[in-house]
Amino acid sequence: MADGPARRRRRRSGSEESVDALTPLAMEVHGDAGSRRAQEECRGRLDAIVLDPCNAQLGYEGVDICFVDPTEDMVAAEEALRLALVGQIGGDRPHVSPEDLGQAIRSEFEIAYGDFSVVPCHSFDFVIKFKSSEIMERVDSRGRVTGPNFFVLVRKWSRHDGSKGVELRVKAEVIMKGVPAHAWQERVVREFLAKYCWVETLYMDTAAPRQMVHVSADVWVSNLRQIPPKAFLAIPEPESGLKLTTFVLDIPAGGCKKFNGYPITIDVSEIRYLSPPVGVSPDRFGSDNGCDGVPTEPFDDDDRSYGGFQAIDETDSDREPAAWKPGYG
Prior knowledge:
Residues 283-329 are annotated as: Disordered. InterPro entries: Sex_diff_modulator. By secondary structure, this protein is α+β, with helices and mostly antiparallel strands. The protein has 6 helices and 12 strands. It has 2 domains: 7-65 and 166-284, no CATH class; 73-156, RRM (RNA recognition motif) domain (Alpha-Beta Plaits). The strands form 2 sheets. Strands 1, 2, 8, 9, 10, 11 and 12 form a 7-stranded antiparallel sheet that branches. Residues 1-5, 13-58 and 286-329 have low confidence and may be disordered.
């Protein structure tokens, strides 16, 4: 374990179950109604997971939050999108296609075909990408694009579009047991934990492991109950042959996709420092600093002066999450 300020841990309340109590499972996902009922029964046997209390504020009450780290591709995409505007159809919101908007931009601003592109977008109606900042600024300075029988409000793109600020205020240590030998990789563990918490530091020797019993990590959560005491790590089985392969065949509806489910037990302990860590102000340290684990509205220090119209939050709170949670036999 890495050196750092003295700290103590508080275990999560609740019953602890050993890995011996979990039965290995070969999971099958079918397309018929009977199998769907079986899946519902499986979900009913799964221990309840108390999720982040901010989900109601986000419009996704009862839905998991999946944490992902920034990637090099994200950084490159954000840099490219500095030359982009977002567009929102104004007025009575008539139907406007990307081609309609593109033609209006070409006519109003005398911009050539190859100097920009228009694509539909989830958070707003369109993202308009330009080849140069000079062309983008020309359109942005007007704030709108006018076409026959429609107009589109435009402003500069921001990664904050369609998002709300979330704060995780509980630091914890996670100890996982049950990761199979052939899946003993950092990427596997990070993807497994991403549904429950954000992983700050992962302590795992993969080059020449001296032990393959447990994996530990320092993570951030809104509360300790956000991480379940047990779960299954499901790895797809090959459709034919005995060797594991990364090639996955398409299976028609009504077929069956098989997985090997490996029971994982997770022990969670809150990390509480006995003295303020370096860089943390004493008035923000301790259990009485107002950190209740409830995510906030968008961060106060975010620069949101991106234009003259408000973002539209079009979250689909009625849609069921796609993840299927296996139960315990």
